[in-house]
Fold:
Amino acid sequence: MKPFFSIIVPTYNRAHLIAKAIESVINQTLSSWELIIVDDGSTDNTKEIVNSYNDSRIRYIYQQNAERSEARNNGIKNSTGTYICFLDSDDYYLANRLKELHNEIIKQGKPIAFYYTGILYLYEGEISARPELSNTFAKIQDFIVCAVIGTPQVCIHESILAKENFNPLFNIGEDMELWLRVSKIASPIYLENQFTVVAVEHDTRSVNVKLYNSYIDQMRMLRHIFSENHPGHRISENIKKQLRSNCFFGMAKFFIYNRKKRTAARHLMQSIFADVSHFQNKYRLNILLKLMQPNGIEKAILLLQ
Structure:
């Protein structure tokens, strides 16, 4: 029987974390699902962990390392569910995740739609909900890039993802890039009061600015979506400036944490000049001034805390 949901989990060397994600799907109060785990070339015992679960609804697919966009596309290609959900291998669902999604989809008549829910964050044992941005924007493109809808938040009809997949050129901001293209088919629908997916904060996340300068790849993605042939070119100019500015500031933070004073200062100045009316510019200028003082790196780090 065709499952109602396909849940796609890309993973790479997360054997020590993935059991929580798997068990959170197994423990769902709704049983009509398949779980597709796409192993993106792991060198640890991920395969053994996955295969230790004796459940015919779980499928393991191995691929040579090609990054998470390709892994998710591989999962989409092999999925059979009507609605496709995503989960990262270091995060997990609450037990009512799929049941609440199912109830709302049935209530709305099983439309060809792009849904998303709220998200919870687990940090140092404390769980908190992230406030979701209301769509008061004149342009759907402006809303998508400002809302920051994470991949684990979404639930999308299979027919939409048959037309639009993740762009394998991008592994940072790849979700935003896809949602902009998907918005040509279906605008995102927020399901209120559904906070049923938990993102676990830890030091090895790819968005950890102390360890990874992911903003270089983010800037490359922005240049792509701002190009004339992409739906993102319709984003308002003031928001484009803000996005570029934020990217430069992210780069600056990476170089501050890694004690590259001159490079950090250069990126701070770029962040200020990229959007001279940015609401954070006073704060960023203060960091720049601290950076120029003796022991400036330590003073700047304190301001970033």
Remarks:
- Residues 215-304 form one domain.
